Each structure stands twice: as C-alpha cells, then as structure tokens.
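Predict the holo structure. Ligand: aspartic acid.
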Amino acid sequence: MSGFRHRHVLGLEGWSRDDVLQVLDRAERFHALNEGVVKKSPSLRGRTVINMFLEPSTRTRTSFELAAKRLGADAINFTPSQSSTVKGETLLDTARNLQAMHPDVIVLRHSASGAAASIARHVEAAIINAGDGTHEHPSQGLLDCATIRRHKRPGARDLAGLTVAICGDLAHSRVARSDVHGLGILGAKVRCAAPRTMIPVGFEALGCEVFDRVEPAVEGADVVIMLRIQKERAQGPSLYPNNREYSRYFGLGPRLLELLADDAIVMHPGPVNRGLELDPRIADGPRSVILDQVTWGVAVRMALLELLAGDGSVAAP
Ligand code: ASP
C-alpha cells in the first residue's frame, strides 16, 4: 500500500511533510532507475495517462509522457490545435468526453487558475495540475525540492537550515507559489524578491519573507531560484521600465552571485529568458543545476503517477 492520501495533485498548499517526503523518497528510487540502461519499472501496465496541455510546454509535457511510459502506462497526448477545443468545446465537456474513455490519470495544463480543481470535481480519473494560470505547478515545486535535497542535503530527509531565495516575476509565477509551499513544508527558510509592481498583495502570508530588492534576498542564500518574466501573462502597462533596467537590478549576474553563499546553487524552472532574468554565463556555469532539475522532473513525475494510479494507491474522495 502506498498510503498516499491524495486522490488528485492540485497544489502543494495544505500538504503535510509526510506527503512531500513520500513523493521525494519514491522519486529517489526512480532517479536511480533512470540512470541505468533499462529505464523501465512497469508498475502502471494497463493504466492510461492522458496529457492535456492547453498551454505550451516543453519540459513538463515531455517528462510526464516519459514518466508514464517508463512505468509501462499508455500515454496519450491531447493536442489542442487538433482537437475540438478549437471548435469551441468547453474544458468540462472535453474532460467528460476523455473520461468516457476511462483514463486513470489526466495531466492538465491550463491558462486559468483553478482549472484543474474544477475538472477534478467532475471526472473519476486522478487529476494532476501541470500548471493552472498563476496559481500552482505542484510537480515543479516537488522537483525543485528534490533537486535541492540532493545537492544541498544529501542523505537528509528535509531541507531544515537552508535559505532559499526566489527572485523575479512573483505576480505571474505558479512555480513560485508551489516552491514556497514545498520548501516551507520541508523546513527551509524562503525569501522572495521582485520589483514592487510584481509583488502580489499578501504574498508573505504564503510563508516567506518578501523584498522589493534582490540583494537582501540573496545575501548568504544557499539556493537561488530565478523566475521567468511571464510576458504572455502580463496585461496592460509593463510592470517594469525596460529589459535593460530589469536585468540590471533584478537579473542574476556576477555582481549578485558574489552575495550568495560560496557553495550556493542556481536554479530556474525554464524556459530561461537568457540575459534578462539570468546571465547566460551563470545559466551555463558551475553553480547551475538547471538541467538536473529537468532530470529530477522525470523521477518526481514517475513517483506522482505511481502514487496516484499504482496498485497501492488509495482512492480517497
Ligand atoms: N515552465 C514553468 C511554468 O509553466 C515556468 C515558466 O513557464 O516560466 O510555469
């Protein structure tokens, strides 16, 4: 029995330490498997996973598909441009029709915050939120925790004693919200920084310190997570004067790197706006673990799929 108490994975808000550790510990095993020659552990043979991505994705979609296949499940990719969504079918109708084909898991990415939660009320399949608007991206939060644990706390279970700085477009980042929850649950101290125009009202209530300058956030930090400027979500007047000023004051370059702890690591969920929020020399430099995040993404998504749809999964209401 997996003993996992969630039927869906909609967000990390409200998760317990045990919930997060169950995913991370299982992901450790899959990470080791994925480094071998035969990357298969067919515990989901006969199960079906539908990837329903209604917003662009590279890493998340590919890794969910790979994760499902490595577990032996049938993975179907639903492509909106070739489906009835372009004919005006509602999300709920599309989901109900997919449900009629009896998938075990639907992985949903959607531009509306709350989309995954609303679908979860109407289908029997387990729903994994692969990013809903500006709300949450729980599998990214978990893979970030897994990456940090491996690099900064090898052998330990949680992240107590670490300071993590999350810098950039807090206003639109679902990754920031999931990271703040996940890191906080595992005992890390979280500092967030953004231009004042990009700090949502009450953001500190999520459980982090909030700064309108990067320097106090990154000072002595063990980990820095840079966020992408989400141009596609920003409406109305620009939230910052211009790219040059943004990269000068909020981008991670050599000057800010000096302020971090000597052995600090640099992360970014991707895709990176090179030269805007992150200097390419740092993105490709020795402190960067950005590609390790991608590697952990497969292992963490295998763990989530197995916990939700494996034999030992508990289908609590
Ligand atoms: N790929 C992440 C997301 O979908 C981060 C980003 O797009 O900036 O939220």
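Residues 17-136+295-309 form a domain with the Rossmann fold fold (CATH 3.40.50.1370). The chain has eleven helices and nine strands.
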